[in-house]
Amino acid sequence: LAGGIILGVALWLRHDSQTTNILYLQLGDKQAPNTFYVGIYILIAVGAVMMFVGFLGCYGAIQESQCLLGTFFTCLVILFACEVAAGIWGFVNKDQIAKDVKQFYDQAFQQALMAESETNNGKAVVKTFHETLDCCGPDNAIGAITPLWRDDLCPKKDSFLKNFESSNCHKKIDELFSGKLYLIGIAAIVVAVIMIFEMILSMVLCCGIRNSSVY
Question: Which cysteine pairs are covalently linked by disulfides here (predicted)?
């Protein structure tokens, strides 16, 4: 059940409309940074393997098989080690993910402002960011100084005041990925706690079977 829940959360994060709209973008020959998906794929793999390993442990407990329970324990140790490694990697790269996406947005924004023709898709990329995140420009100060591009690139608002108050996209990008990474962190902690209990209980059960009388 825990594996199924983790797998469901990971698939939801993988197919979330906001992240997919942004991370599938392509600016000329350059693809949007998809480092964020590495953590998602790890969660998907862990969830799927947990479901299989959980079945293995359940069957081993029903059959009172020391071999299956030992295999179950070994798989859990390997999964736990992989999750710890992934957690350390995610903690180290948590700021880099948003930074890479912001740099990609800034490049598209510059191309959209300087392009005199439709030879590049900078405007399309910028519009996708603006519509998906409901933001406008990399910084509010830029929007105040150069209002000419706002009607062309930014989402239409009911009033000029609402249009002016639109959040800058750097802030929205930070909020998007910090929220998603927060969910990934919670899921990883829950999985780690469950794994620890599973390892303890599997060893207790295995020792109990070994010490019990043979029928």
Answer: 135-169, 136-154
